[in-house]
Amino acid sequence: MAVRSKHPVAAAPTAPVREKTKHLLLRAWCIFILFLALSGVAWINAIGSVATGVLTVATGVVSVILWFVVRPPVQWRRLPWFPVAYAVWAGLSIAWSQWPGTSALTWVLMLITALQGLFVAAVLTWRELVRAIASALKWCLGLSLLFEFIVAAFIRRPVLPGFVIPDSPAADPIVYWCRGNLFNDGRIQGIYGSANPLAAVCLLAIIVFAIRIASRAPRRTFLIIWIVVAGFLMYRASSATIYLATVGVAVVLATVLLMRTAQRPGARTKWYVIFAVVGLGGALSIWLLRERIFSALGRSSDLTGRERIWQSVLARTAQHPVIGNGFATPWIPTDPHFDGWIIDHGQTVMQAHNMWIDVSMQLGIVGVILFGLLYLAYIWRAWFFAVDRPRWDLRGDRPYSAITLLPTLVGALLLVQGLAESEPLLLWGWMFVVMLAFKIKQSPHVGMGRIEQRVAIERGELVPDADDPHLDNRSHW
Predict the structure, then answer these.
(1) CA distances, 362 to each of 308, 378, 414 (Å)
(2) Are 452 and 477 contacting, i.e. CB atoms less than 8 angstroms apart?
(3) CA 95-101-105 angle, 5° bins
(4) What is the C-alpha to C-alpha distance for residues 398 and 260, in angstroms, rounded to an integer?
(5) Long-range interactions of 55-60: CB distance < 8 A, separation 24+
(6) Which residues pair with residue 344 across a beta bridge?
(7) Which residues pair with 178 in a beta bridge?
(8) Which whole number is the average pLDDT over 58-62?
């Protein structure tokens, strides 16, 4: 039972700081937006491409309306200009595109995805953003595990997109949405219909949940359970690309943590040299020993037929090497230019399985340069966001925040994944690059929220100062 003093000098107790209902609803909408991007093609498998397109456009319209209602403070001069330049060049490519209909459609979807990333970054603080991403990832993992369990335990046969149960086995298992392999040694696909996107989301989940634990978030025991679930699903998805991405993320994390131990600027130089040598040596070793490595991972040395796909895409790139053939992310399989162009397991391929080769075919050398500058600027800002102490005045001894690790670790994941997949060009890969780049430029430090302020004041660690704008970077409405 709560006990308080009745002495007339003692201040009356106050209720804990609570969020307003409208802000809770706003954050719930952001979680749904993030889930929509993170769940990827699961929506197409469930409700079809037309309904998914309508849903995507509708959510974009709602976010625009909310943006005008909420009016979050935005420094428009500090937009992520390289993503804007890349998007503008992609839009201009419609004028000379070999497939103008596909270019226009996919460009609109890319703009909506970027808009959603800007919206989420504008209305949520850093802590709220990480918390919202974690919530969306829990839905992705939970639904994937539940879907695999229902198919394996009750249906006991593969399921086609649209929840169709075939009467006879398909000619190739690649057409199945879920193969029901949860209780055997086969690869699982979750709600994605493919093991590789599932594995990528699992690795992202492990990163986000670990950051939440390191940030001393509440209910850390449940976060540990979710990490176990994500690790199990990633292991059962068995993606060689994501295994390599895990190594890359671990190396980047180790580098950042060592950089944070440096007491003077020159002390970081030796670590940069050491990890540059290790990184280049590791990449060269992987390439030279790729046959042994991929054989150990159960994959062929040509990355499961990807070299054949790359050769076909590069041949089309050579037709218009400077300005490209026209934006198309992803390739629309019903378009005559892509329908039957590259066939894998009897299905039309919808991506180049390498984001750089994909960009070169679509937008030429100009597009590759813009995309390279986009990632260079993102990695540059994300890196110093992670290794530098939060500082907005003369004080230089503020503690590091685990949240600042998120952008650079996500960048490492996407860069490695982009060597064998084109997913970073669309859906959550594109959204996260735009969202995190925008957030870093708008809020280059992780501020202290209202709850943290109250706890610090009660402990005597902080003197209340309502005029300090750096303590609470919450977006009000």
Answers:
(1) 18, 22, 19
(2) no
(3) 100
(4) 12
(5) 56/109, 56/112, 57/108, 57/112, 59/32, 59/33, 59/112, 59/116, 60/112, 60/115, 60/116
(6) 347
(7) 159
(8) 96
Q: Mean pLDDT over all residues of the chain?
A: 85
254/260 Cα distance (integer angstroms): 10
304's tokens: 């499961």
Tokens 């996500």, residue located: 410
- Under 8 Å CB-to-CB from 355, ≥6 apart: which residues? 371, 418, 419, 421, 422, 423, 424, 425
| First vs last C-alpha separation in the chain | 36
Tokens, residue 278 = 């290790």
> What residue spans of 48-169 are helical by DSSP H?
49-70, 81-92, 100-123, 126-150
pLDDT tens for each residue of 462-474: 455 444 444 444 3
308 CB neighbour count, 10 Å cutoff: 14
For residue 6, the 8-state DSSP code is -
Q: What SS3 state is found at 348?
A: strand
Site of tokens 């009467």: 167
Instruction: Give the confidence band of 461 by pLDDT, cuts at 50, 70, 90.
Output: very low
Residue type, 395: R
pLDDT digits (tens, 9 = 90+) for 173-196: 888 999 999 999 889 999 999 999
Amino acid occupying residue 127 = R
Say what the pTM is: 0.88
Q: Please, which residues have CB within 8 angstroms of residue 342's CB and are 6 or more apart in sequence? A: 309, 312, 313, 348, 349
Q: pLDDT class for 293, splitting at 50, 70, 90?
A: low
| CB-CB contact of 159 with 435 (8 Å) | no
Secondary structure (3-state) at 228:
helix
The CA-based diameter of the chain, rounded to the nearest angstrom, is 85
Query: How far lies 88's CA from each of 235, 331, 426, 467, in Å?
Result: 39, 19, 16, 40
Alpha-carbon distance of 234 to 292, in angstroms, equals 22
Tokens standing for 204? 């992202």
- CA 439, CA 132: separation in Å to the nearest integer? 14
Question: CA-CA-CA-CA torsion for 49, 55, 57, 62, nearest 10 degrees?
Answer: -170
Rounded Cα gap, residues 88 and 103, in angstroms? 13
Calculate the alpha carbon distances from 448 to 76, 337, 400, 456, 457 in Å.
23, 52, 12, 10, 12
Mention every residue, 6+ apart, whose C-beta is less than 8 A from residue 273: none
**Residue 167 is encoded by which pair of tokens?**
């009467």
